[in-house]
Design a protein that fits this description.
Blueprint lengths: L1 E5 L4 H11 L8 H12 L4 E6 L5 E12 L3 E11 L8 H15 L4 E4 L6 H9 L21
Parallel strand pairs: 4-5
Antiparallel strand pairs: 1-2, 2-3, 3-4
């Protein structure tokens, strides 16, 4: 398996990476994905893709280096997904190891991610990978002014 970092405009983003990422983020169209990455790249967003020896993309990580007062410098994982047909084959572990390398090279103190409460299989994987549950993530939807009651 090889893991490569893909820059905006790389045709592998749409052809290889997006079909795997869509398993986790089905709302992403090619146009929306291009827009998110082109805008997010200047904010530190990066994507790494895991390929089999047959050059088939089987895993994706979206990530960024974050500097804040709580963790100081950490690598935040926006997306971590292994193609359904390739789960439990070491792809996720390889991606986490790859991200840890980026984090250490950038002087980070932690690897962080959020995971939806319904993703219990993912939670088992994160616990096996020695992630700790350290916080609750809260979200407040913002409605348009005409939708507010």
């Amino acid at each position: 398996m090889k893991i490569i970092d893909l820059q905006p405009g790389d045709p592998r983003l749409e052809n290889d990476l997006l079909p795997v990422l869509s398993e986790l983020r089905p709302h992403l169209t090619p146009e929306l994905f291009r827009e998110v990455y082109e805008t997010g790249h200047s904010q530190g967003l990066r994507f790494s893709a895991a390929y089999t020896d047959e050059d088939r993309c089987v895993g994706v990580a979206g990530w960024r280096i974050v500097i804040n007062t709580s963790t100081l410098r950490s690598l935040y994982v926006d997306d971590l997904v292994t193609a359904a047909a390739s789960r439990s084959t070491g792809v996720g572990h390889a991606l986490v190891t790859h991200l840890e390398g980026h984090a250490r090279a950038a002087g980070c103190h932690e690897l962080n991610l959020d995971s939806g409460t319904h993703r219990t299989g993912a939670h088992r994987f994160y616990l096996r990978e020695r992630f700790d549950i350290v916080a609750f993530h809260f979200a407040r939807p913002l409605t348009a002014p005409d939708e507010a009651s």
